[in-house]
Amino acid sequence: MKIAALQMVSTPRVDDNLATARRLIDQAAADGAKLVGLPEYFCFMGATDRDKLAIAEAPGDGPIQQMLSDAAKQHGVWVMGGTLPIRSGDPDYVMNANCVYAPDGSLAARYDKMHLFRYDNGRESYDEGRVLRAGDAPMSFEAGSVRVGLSICYDLRFPELYRRITFGAEKPCDLIAVPAAFTYTTGRAHWELLLRARAIENQCYVIAPAQGGTHENGRRTWGHSMVIDPWGEVLNVLPEGAGVVMAELDPARIASVRSQLPALAHRRCI
Questions:
Q1: What mean pLDDT is predicted for residues 144-150?
Q2: Helices (H), 119-191
Q3: Which of 99, 153, 173, 204 does the annotation list as catalytic?
Q4: Which one of the listed residues 40, 128, 192, 240 is annotated catalytic?
Q5: What are phi and psi of 24, to 5 degrees?
Q6: Which residues form the CN hydrolase domain (predicted)?
Q7: Known catalytic residue at 2
Q8: H or E stretch covering 67
Q9: Half-sphere exposure of 151 (CA within 13 A, CB side)
């Protein structure tokens, strides 16, 4: 199965972002991708955290969700919609939701980000808890014969989440998705290192679509969208700018790694 991580440099204008996302989905599908992933906040990068409250959608209703559904149906592909703000029931808070659409355009899964990013080095400061409610449940779905585990950005730093996903069903994940908007500072230090660790310890592919560049609000994101194989090898990467990162997900490669080094079978609960 060909998979594609789509990288963006999103703006404060939803319509412009949706047009860019649709163009990248079209490109990936034309190149043979059967599953595509957009980055965190692909639809909107506002001037302040609270700006996302104004564009938040009700579950199952709104132009952002409709675009994702339409693109999946038109091309007959799985679309992992990065994240978009979904109303939480409290007007001061939203959920940061990864909505996945099946090739028929139906909603196949939704994962709400569980770990909320907070960082302050004296020059940069972020606190997602000011406007986001944390999700409370891991999520995975079946894309045909491929089991996909969902996560978002800061979740990457919590390996126990991936263990819950991997061992929460009849078979481990074949693919872990990590849509993100890593800061330039934290991304340069930890992004690839953490992604490769998650691939190695779970012996599966990782797809990491990211925001990558300097945004109109002045924020700079790290980018480096990539696909990693179960041995931790980076198969393809895009450092900065909008574009498509393609790679082949090979079930035989997963089986070979797990057979040669059966670490998942050796796991013990401590």
A1: 96
A2: 159-166, 184-186
A3: 153
A4: 40
A5: -70, -40
A6: 1-251
A7: no
A8: helix 63-75
A9: 26
